[in-house]
Amino acid sequence: MAMLHNRRKHVAIAASLVAPFVATFCLVFLWPAIRMVELSFTAGPLIGEGTWVGLANYKRLLTDNLFYTSLKNNGYFVVLTVVPTTALALAIALAINRLSGRLQAAMLALFFLPYILPVSVVTMIWTWMLDFQFGVLQPVLAFFTGKPVPVFKNPYWVMPMIAVVTIWWTNGFNVLLFIAGLRNIPQELYEAAALDGATKRQQFFRVTWPLLWPVTALVLTLQLILQLKIFDQVYLMSGGGPFNSSYVLLLMVYREAFQLNHGGYASAVALILFVIIMVVSVLQFQVLKIGGRR
Amino acid sequence: MTGVTLRNVRKSFGTVEVIKNVSLEIKKGEFGVFVGPSGCGKSTLLRMIAGLEETTSGSIAIEGEDVTHVEPARRGVAMVFQSYALYPHLNVFENMAFSLRLARASREKTHQMVGEAARILKLEDHLHKKPSQLSGGQRQRVAIGRAIVRQPKVFLFDEPLSNLDAELRVQMRLELARLHRRIGATMIYVTHDQVEAMTLADKIFVLRDGEVQQSGGPIELYDDPDNRFVGGFIGSPAMNFLNGRIVSRRGKTVTIALENADGQTLEARIGQDAVGEGRTVVVGVRPEHLELCEDGVKVGVEMAEDLGGVSYLHTRTTDGTEIVVERRGARDNLNDRTVSLRAAPENVLVFDPEGRRLR
């Protein structure tokens, strides 16, 4: 009986400890999420009741050209950022890892610095640097293209440029993850490999790369989720233009919900993005896990 | 034929010299052991032979060939690390085949050589397992197997048994000795455990502060240490040391009054004529060379450790200096009693106050 009593007490204590979190979670996440799903089946405004329209919002999505443009741009942005930023972070981490002492700390700080800046500051810096008339980077662009480029007003330049800014901004965190992963590989493995006759290149491909794979998979997945949610940089630098060439799904959600007050339609787009992120990231992580086991 | 030869080898880290002018030779097929307290430079010396540490000055030769500036892989050495350093993402087979894969050896050759090593080390049933699924002893064998597959001229072992429990350590020690007999290659082994050094070595090098104190066969070092450090380091329980002064000399026999025991005397043999009366010395006697007698150095028994066959009496002289005495087959309890000790003059070693042996 004493055991039973204790166990009940045990459960009660555990429940009381998780209760604040569960309550907050339900209040600010679960309930709004359910309401949003509900909203996506109505023609309602952002606030207030709307009429039930069933799947009408989703049917409308399938014929909305802006939705397809945004979806394509989201995909394009993922291609431009996820793998390049991961590769770049790995390269930088490998280089930093070869340094030691204060120099290493200084270099790491240097690469991490952009990450602590707020997005508005980041976009201000880059808008200024890339300004068509006064931008300090325009001579560099002019050197390659022959003339200055108004990057945020050119449909071919706008997405790659936003990708560059995003990579510059967020890369430090990935470098940090890779450095942590590299430090977890014992030095003796490299010594053993060197004695076994491995060149530096072979040491990388046969020791570093396979042992770092879990970190690489993590970085790739985190990046995929993060970059599918692209909004701030586009909103602040190009506003989705020119000619919708940098229009992305979250921008569409923002416009429909907060500018046009189409709560129902915006919810439908948001829900689609949520499903895409979930499916793609789970799929990717599984594929990467299999890749690592092979 | 020569196996490994070191000439005037030095190693500095910045301004700190950790290896100071070491010259030594290990013959081909010999089992050499570097032994010494931690921080004596023994591991650094081994890593220099492996090529994992640069040699500041001097030369290292393996089988007559100067390898001082040759990269590790081309020295013909294989190393077994204290942490085993197995590749965690590869199974046992691939761990052992790593060097063959790098050398692009044929399928048959790989299977034949790894199979042979696995047979010697009884690892055949574990070839498909990952290192994390193996016990400590098995991991150690895989590490040795990886070395065997490379067919090196010299095997280097860096404290390979220190991560194993006591029982397994004894077992692996025997296996290593058997392995050495079987493949007959030159081996260099680093340890801080003098029992491992005594049982495995053909030749022991006792190191201290980056210098070789003495080298020779295990029994040679045990019976005839060059200095107080070697005498105290080799042998367990350690040699007893007492301060004293030579009070008289008859031929080669000197009588030494012990300062730590109220001037009671012990006799010793010294050949050098220059060592005469009045000289301050340190006397060293091994526990098994002390015996109880009617009339000798009086000590109080503090505690006896009875191990059955052998027992160790922990005694103290009048000024509190500890003396350990080994007894065999004794069944009487001497706790808290006062006993007298003597030792045969030929078993009493004499050192000068700086620790050098007076022979």
Q: What are the main properties of this structure?
A:
heterodimer; A: 294 residues; mainly alpha; MetI-like fold; 12 helices; B: 359 residues; alpha+beta; Rossmann fold; OB fold (Dihydrolipoamide Acetyltransferase, E2P); 2 domains; six-stranded antiparallel beta sheet; 36% strand; ATP-binding (chain B)
Structural class of chain B: alpha+beta
Write out the strand line-up for the largest beta sheet of chain B, numbering strands in chain order.
6-7-8-3-9-10
Multimeric status of the protein:
heterodimer
- Which second-level CATH architecture of chain A applies? Orthogonal Bundle
DSSP summary, beta strand count of chain B: 21
What's the CATH H-level homologous superfamily of chain A?
MetI-like
The share of residues in helices of chain B is 10-25%
Q: Cα-atom Rg of chain A, whole angstroms?
A: 24 Å
Q: What is the arithmetic mean of pLDDT of chain A?
A: 88
Task: Please provide the ordered H/E string of secondary-structure elements of chain B.
Answer: EEEHEEEHHHEHEHEEHHEEEEEEEEEEE
Write down the CATH topology of the largest domain in chain B. Answer: Rossmann fold
Q: In one word, what is the shape of chain A?
A: globular
Q: How many helices of chain A in DSSP terms? A: 12
Structural class of chain A: mainly alpha
CATH class of chain A: Mainly Alpha
Shape of chain B: elongated
DSSP helix count of chain B? 8
GO molecular function, one term (chain B): ATP binding
Organism (chain B): Chelativorans intermedius
Domain ABC transporter (chain B): 4-234
Keywords (chain B): ATP-binding, Cell inner membrane, Cell membrane, Membrane, Nucleotide-binding, Transport
